[in-house]
Amino acid sequence: MEQTPKANRVHIGFFGRCNAGKSTLINMLTDQPVSLVSEVAGTTTDPVSKSMEILPLGPVVITDTAGIDDTTELGTLRMEKTEEVVKKINLAVYVLRTDEEPTADDMHWLGLLKQNNVPIALFINEINAENKEVNQEENKEDASAYVESHKGLSELATVIGSADFTSKTKRLELLDLLGGLTPLDVEGDQTLLQGLVEEGDAIILVCPIDSAAPKGRLILPQVQTIREILDYKGLALVCQTEELPAMINSLKNPPKMVICDSQAFDRVDELTPNTIPLTSFSILMARFKGKLQDLVAGVEAIKNLKPGSRVLISEGCTHRRQCDDIGTVKIPNLLKKQGHTDLQLEFTSGGAFPKDVSQYDLIIHCGACMLTRREVLRRIECAVVQGTPIVNYGVLIAALHGILERAISPFVDELKG
Question: Residue 188 contacts by C-beta under 8 Å, 6 or more apart in sequence?
Fold first, then answer.
């Protein structure tokens, strides 16, 4: 579980009103004091996350959110944070209490989850259950009766469970409920190298070591690619840019493919014979996480950039900017070198991404190795719906160097489909 990147885990959000019992349920589920529990309403202020493993879902990230009826001075900001969680999760647990009627706020947030196609496990917290004998079947019947007695709840919930928080048996019930749901927009059995590598294939990975590369480590896409090659029983051959010719010449047979860092695209293209397929880690990520077709289609907008055009450059992670940072330095310099001067450049990083992107003439996004597939698809859809072209780093750099056709050639049949 610890070896699975956070972006590749199933994300589960817990929602409900203040003091509904979300935090208690999470602590029971994880068997750890992840969330602060108190009778004071509004104890949970910002989303709190915890990684664990739930079979058969596998590695997951559980997120506790602020009460949806938070009326404190910062309540509006907290609801904005909660709304961001809705857009990123793959499953939802919504908690209601048996001693309270569902409110308009409850129906609004349940409807928002449904609108975003998030599967919902509706849990009914049996507040007075401490005086009852623990009877799983009776509690289930009580939960079903509660839902049926309130119009609209049954249509919103994917599964229904009772949440007697005084009983540890409820942990198993919730685990069973979650395990039976199909998460929204997860990678599933799809892989970075789906259909590209077979047993015995030699793949050369060109991994330049620059100031942005963590000392003693490779960046995540490179590590994931190496692991997948090993999973396919292929041969992962790693070198830096100038060692590429010697690596190719040392092989008895040509490699199946060369995969490089997008920043080295132009030089690697020169050093790799045209008979050997070439692509980049960023383009592999675009295919794995989102819709490569939409990102390739966005290339046309590059030709239409003119002085004053607004361009958003968005990073999915947050890191200390280096003097040769790809997003804030290298890509702007490359655009200038290609004649695109006096652009209005704006930058976002981490979870930040504007709701309104119609104001931009182009969005340039990173490879998104730190974002979930659901979040990447949401950002691409946001751009497409608002009519704003979007590309990612690898697609943009290949296009500016005039080698996009070669860089996407391994996926040409998929792009036609």
Answer: none
- H/E/C letters for each residue in the chain? CCCCCHHHCEEEEEEECCCCCHHHHHHHHHCCCCCCCCCCCCCCCCCEEEEEEECCCEEEEEEECCCCCCCCCCHHHHHHHHHHHHHHCCEEEEEEECCCCCCHHHHHHHHHHHHCCCCEEEEEECCCHHHCCCCHHHHHHHHHHHHHCCCCHHHHCCEEEECCCCCCHHHHHHHHHHHCCCCCCCCCCCCCCCCCCCCCCEEEEECCCCCCCCCCCCCHHHHHHHHHHHHCCCEEEEECHHHHHHHHHCCCCCCCEEEECHHHHHHHHHHCCCCCCEEEHHHHHHHHHCCHHHHHHCCHHHHCCCCCCEEEEECCCCCCCCCCCHHHHHHHHHHHHCCCCCCEEEEECCCCCCCCCCCCCEEEECCCCCCCHHHHHHHHHHHHHCCCCEEEHHHHHHHHCCCHHHHCHHHHHHHHC
CATH of span 6-179: 3.40.50.300
| pLDDT score for 30 | 72
Q: 241-258, pLDDT tens digit by residue?
A: 999 999 999 999 999 999
Domains of the chain by residue range: 6-179, 202-284, 290-404
pLDDT in tens, 263-281: 999 999 999 999 999 999 9
State the pLDDT at residue 145.
78
The list of the chain residues with pLDDT below 70 reads: 1-5, 32-46, 127-143, 162-172, 187-189, 210-216, 318-324, 417
Instruction: Select the CATH number that applies to the domain covering 202-284 from these four: 3.40.50.150, 3.30.70.260, 3.90.1150.30, 3.40.50.11420.
Output: 3.40.50.11420
* Nearest C-alpha neighbor of 124 from the set 13, 20, 12, 28: 20
Q: What is the CATH number of domain 290-404?
A: 3.40.50.11410
Question: Do 6-179 and 202-284 show the same overall fold?
Answer: yes
35-70: pLDDT as tens digits:
544 444 444 456 778 888 777 778 889 999 988 987
CA torsion through residues 313, 317, 321, 322, sign: negative
Strand partners, 363: 312, 390
Instruction: Quickly count: other Cβ atoms within 10 Å of residue 317's Cβ.
Output: 15
